Amino acid sequence: MSLDYLREQVVEANLDLVRKGLVLSTFGNASGIDRDQGLIVIKPSGVAYDELKPEQLVVTDLQGQVVEGSLRPSSDLPTHAALYRSFLTIGGIAHTHSEYATAWAQARKPIPCFGTTHADHFRGPIPVTAVMSDIEIARDYELNTGVAIVRAFEGLDAMTIPAVLVANHGPFAWGADSRKAAENAWMLEAVARIAYFTAQINPYTGVVGMALQDRHYFRKHGSSAYYGQARIKE
Predict the structure, then answer these.
(1) Can you list the domains of the chain with their CATH numbers?
(2) Is 120 in the active site?
(3) Which of 34, 120, 140, 214 is catalytic?
């Protein structure tokens, strides 16, 4: 993958967040990684989305050291880098402050799987991180945000649940590339909204059983998926 292609893809992923109504002001960001070169491409800090151009994106290594670019990278770069170092199969990350997912994060509640819309995209509840300590916030806050996310996924598969709620902060999502990460951020907001209304209508609603969850998840994911059209091999 060329860096030029990755830049274009990451710009489109950032704009996807705007198109789907997931962005407030300049809050939020998307990034992508070239695993072969070990390089991250990320949105610059505070740049308006309608002004964003591929050449403005910042290129860093996996430790967050700038390799290319004259602008400051997103302040969330250390979080992105920590996730890329820990979740080796992800190729893109999206962070937003979308309203319903952020509300669940501020409530410090995981999003339960109440139905098949959720199960189509996430195999289980969306986890929420532990609340960070004052010391973690004071020292390397963004890095420790990534550490908190990684801890929340101990015993979980980050690719079957490609999203998380950071307590008191907001959602992160990821995927095979930056566009997929943006799509998963959109799906996360959708299930957060539906779950909120479900809990309001019936506070005693139970979660869906694993048989139905797995049936819907594996219709779309994995080697036995049968949703949609088969790809023609060239």
Answers:
(1) 3-220 (3.40.225.10)
(2) yes
(3) 120
